[in-house]
Amino acid sequence: MTERLSDKNPCDSCKVDRQIGNPNRWECECDRCDKPNDWKSECVKKLAEYETAEEEGRLVALPCNVGDTVYLIDDIDCVFERESIVTEIEIDKDGVTIMIQDEIPICSSGYNLSDFGEIVFLTREEVEKALKEMKIK
After folding, report:
1. Contacts with 66 (C-beta within 8 Å, 6 or more apart), sequence order
2. Residues 6-26: what's their mean pLDDT?
């Protein structure tokens, strides 16, 4: 894991001014060093790396974590909702597969990121809204 630049104190001389919650914590007031400028440059470089990875399709924001509860809409003809658990997240050259535990039999089924918001939902409210919209159509 890389260190968080946003938590890093760029200048020990200004430690008091760097307290979390201080709106001016990004401004160095010591005028004795270049550390704040170096720190800002590091932040910009890191942001550029993330933006490049995102543009190249290498940065993925996962919608959930292993162990999270998700809600599924099953069976197009007889629509119903069920609560399930994310058991595994697989990332390979073909993309991201999120394994979700099925009720009966106890096994896991894989879902793609595109399934989220369609048949897999993160909250009960989201799935209930989707079910209502399906009944209207």
Report:
1. 86, 87, 88, 89
2. 55
